[in-house]
Design a protein that fits this description.
HEPN_dom, globular, about 220 residues, mainly alpha, single chain, 2 domains, about 0% strand, Four Helix Bundle (Hemerythrin (Met), subunit A), two-stranded parallel ribbon
Length: about 220
Amino acid sequence: MIVNKDALVDEDIVWRKAEEQIERKVKSAPLGLIVHTLNEVNEQLQKGHYFFKDIREQGILLFDANKKALAEPGDLTDEERLEIAQGHYNHWFQSAKEFQEFFELAITKGYINKAAFELHQATERFYACTLLTLTNYLPKTHNLEKLKKYCADQDLAFADIFPMDDKFHRRSFRRLQRAYIDARYSMHYEITEEELRYLAGEVEKLKELVERVCLVRLQG
């Protein structure tokens, strides 16, 4: 979705409602809206950003309100693409592992809410590592469910992490999802050590999957 005002990009409630309405009408595949301004898209195209270049070349135009053309894309060599991907992997994988360590320290000291936030950040960063390494693109969201869907589009194995097959698993993931805001600012946020230990195990599985998927791309 390309919009003409910066403020529209951050209208999360608007885009969430749009996604829900489209999902009710289109049952064939899950949908995730990605929203940027025209200036952002053109800037990335001129830099040779291959995610936006693929959209420009392969995307299907559904509606055009202002008829403004997209910029001509620049080009990156295979070596430049590999260097960018390797840089993303090095930074984000290490960052995610550090938040795993912060989680262990916090839960050892009994700082349950802080542990939840640290685990959320580890999860978000492993997803970010995957998306940036494979596509050089990261959506502007802290929503773990959306990030999981985007990663599953790259490799279906991501759909198996954080299963939703029973009440405990669903409740645990919802509480992890809320931890980015509520674990820091809400007096009513709740999560148990049992839930955190289960979630930490899933994050460890996520780490192993991210490492495997990304290294296949980098070494291939």
